[in-house]
Design goal:
Largest sheet: 4 strands, parallel
Strand content: 5-15%
Distance between the termini: 37 Å
Helix content: 25-40%
Oligomer: single chain
Radius of gyration: 17 Å
Structural class: alpha/beta
Number of strands: 6
Strand order of the largest sheet: 3-2-5-6
Length: 221
C-alpha cells in the first residue's frame, strides 16, 4: 500500500514507509479498519501532517492516542470534530489559554485552526479501535512518530515542543534542547491537572514570546 502524505513530509519519511515494521503496521491497520470500527476515518489518519507541512511547523504538541468515541477523532491530537462536545483534557487546555492570554473559550474543539498556523498536533499512535483506548499501541506507530520527532529536531531550529505529561516527556527525550524550546507540564486531563502542574504554566504565552524573539509569527490560540 502506498502511503499518501503531504509532500514535504513524504520527502523526509519515504524511507520510513519502506521499512519492515511500517509494512507490518500497514497490514495491521488495514485489517483493523476492515474488521473493526476504528478512528479516525482512514482519510484522516495523516491529517496532522497534511494540515501542517514540515516546512511550516513551528510548534509541536505531543498526544498519546486518538479519541476513541464516535465522531470525535479527526487526526489532530487533542482535537475533536465540529459539533462534538469538548473532552475534559481539551476543556482544561482552553481554560489555561483563557487564564494565560485572556481570550474567550472557543465554541469549537476543532484545532485545525492551530494546525494551519504551524502547530503539529501529533499523537504517538495515529489510530485506535472504537471504545478501546490504547488498542493500537505497540504495533509500530510509536516507532514512526519517534522518527518524525527526530527529523524535526535534527533538521529544523527554533521549534517549540509542548510536552504534557510523563508519556510525552519520555517520548520527547530525543529533542535537542539547544536548538529548540521544550516546555513541560502535567497532562491537562482532570486526573493530572486538578492536582497541580497544569494550570498556571502559561505555555501558550511563553510559546509566543519565544516565536516572536526568533522573528516568527505568533500563534493565535
Amino acid at each position: 500500500m502506498k502511503v499518501v502524505i503531504e509532500p514535504s513530509w513524504q520527502q523526509r519519511l519515504h524511507a520510513e514507509f519502506e521499512k519492515p515494521y511500517f509494512q507490518n503496521l500497514v497490514e495491521f491497520v488495514r485489517t483493523e479498519y476492515t474488521t473493526q470500527r476504528c478512528y479516525p476515518p482512514g482519510k484522516l489518519i495523516f491529517n496532522a501532517f497534511d494540515k501542517c507541512p514540515f516546512d511550516q511547523t513551528k510548534v509541536v504538541i505531543l498526544g498519546q492516542d486518538p479519541y476513541h468515541g464516535e465522531g470525535q477523532a479527526n487526526g489532530l491530537a487533542f482535537s475533536v470534530n465540529e459539533g462534538i462536545p469538548k473532552p475534559p483534557s481539551l476543556v482544561n487546555i482552553f481554560k489555561e489559554i483563557q487564564d494565560d492570554l485572556g481570550t474567550p473559550v472557543p465554541r469549537s474543539g476543532n484545532l485545525e485552526r492551530w494546525a494551519v498556523q504551524g502547530v503539529l498536533l501529533l499523537n504517538a499512535t495515529l489510530t485506535v479501535r472504537a471504545n478501546q483506548a490504547g488498542s493500537h499501541q505497540n504495533k509500530g506507530w510509536e516507532t514512526f512518530t519517534d522518527a518524525v520527532i527526530q527529523h524535526l529536531s535534527n533538521e529544523k531550529e527554533n521549534l517549540v515542543f509542548l510536552l504534557w505529561g510523563a508519556y510525552a516527556q519520555k517520548k520527547g527525550a530525543v529533542i535537542d534542547s539547544y536548538k529548540h524550546l521544550i516546555l513541560k507540564a502535567k497532562h491537562p486531563s482532570p486526573m493530572a491537572a486538578n492536582y497541580g502542574g497544569w494550570f498556571g504554566t502559561k505555555h501558550f504565552s511563553q510559546t509566543n514570546v519565544y516565536l516572536k524573539s526568533k522573528g516568527l509569527k505568533e500563534i493565535e490560540w
